[in-house]
């Protein structure tokens, strides 16, 4: 069984981003970029299935700038076998990514495709769902446990009221939640090994996909600055302030 994972290059989660002065977006010049954390979990899940003998090959796919090669190298160091870079300078929105991933899937024919539940830069949380719709495949979102059986996957999902367990026929789409696994620490020998693994580069035109954005960002603004708090001497004073100043009770 072939497994494909989708890995996005995003601003590292430790970076405090700044909005550009023209409010057109976030300034990503000279900031540290890393693999989207949910995609690390997706890759770890796929590699564990390969190590358990369930999967025969793990292919990592990234769409975006040439630098996304680095993200693919990280996926290869975690244990993926090869990478596919869909290289483009175009701004990619979830629908375009879903179309690009579908084109790669049509060619590679994986039985399971694992994506993150959301990319921490755009927080869209849409790509996996759109991809399942385009392929007309079953999907299990927010997975916290995956088991593969004969032609089917059993997935535990984190829902509001607790945990839901569903089965779906393969091929299928799964998106990862935080508690699916803890990705391994990438070791130096594995980084060295990853350098020798193949990465194929294609362009959207090779896949007959037009990645042009469908949505227009009107503006991006910083969240309001939090005001400093005040110390109150006791609970009575707190209640008084909540009544008279904050007017919340
Ligand atoms: P989003 O819908 O943008 O929140 O992204 C959800 C998931 O789709 C991510 O966790 C990735 O697995 C995948 N994805 C989104 N954008 C890309 C991209 N440019 N390249 C590869 N995978 C992506």
Can you tell me about this structure?
It is built from 6 helices and 13 strands. Helix 2 (68-78) links the parallel strand 6 and strand 7 (82-87). Helix 2 (68-78) packs across helix 5 (188-194) and helix 3 (94-108) crosses helix 4 (127-135). The model has no long low-confidence stretch (mean pLDDT 96). With 249 residues, it is of the alpha/beta class. Helix content is 27%, strand content 28%. Bound molecules: adenosine monophosphate (AMP). The site of adenosine monophosphate has 23 residues, from helix 1, strand 6, helix 3, strand 8 and helix 4. Adenosine monophosphate binds next to helix 1, strand 6, helix 3, strand 8 and helix 4.
């Amino acid at each position: 069984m072939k497994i494909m994972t989708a890995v996005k290059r995003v601003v590292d989660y430790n970076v405090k981003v700044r909005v550009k002065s023209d409010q057109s977006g976030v300034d990503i010049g000279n900031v540290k970029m890393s693999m989207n954390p949910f995609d690390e979990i997706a890759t770890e899940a796929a590699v564990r299935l390969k190590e358990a003998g369930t999967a025969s090959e793990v292919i990592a796919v990234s769409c975006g700038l040439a630098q996304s090669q680095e993200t693919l190298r990280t996926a290869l160091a975690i244990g993926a076998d090869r990478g596919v870079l869909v290289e483009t300078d175009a701004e990619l929105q979830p629908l375009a990514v879903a179309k690009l991933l579908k084109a790669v899937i049509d060619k590679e024919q994986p039985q399971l495709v694992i994506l993150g539940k959301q990319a921490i830069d755009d927080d869209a949380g849409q790509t996996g769902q759109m991809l399942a719709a385009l392929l007309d495949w079953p999907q299990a979102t927010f997975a916290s446990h995956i088991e593969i059986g004969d032609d089917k996957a059993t997935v535990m999902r984190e829902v509001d009221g607790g945990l839901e367990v569903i089965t779906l026929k393969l091929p299928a789409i799964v998106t990862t939640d935080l508690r699916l696994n803890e990705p391994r620490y990438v070791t130096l020998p594995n980084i060295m090994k990853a350098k020798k693994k193949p990465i194929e580069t294609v362009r959207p035109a090779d896949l007959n996909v037009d990645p042009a954005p469908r949505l227009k960002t009107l503006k991006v603004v910083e969240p309001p600055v939090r005001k400093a708090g005040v110390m109150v001497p006791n609970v009575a004073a707190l209640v008084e302030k909540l009544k008279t100043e904050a007017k919340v009770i």
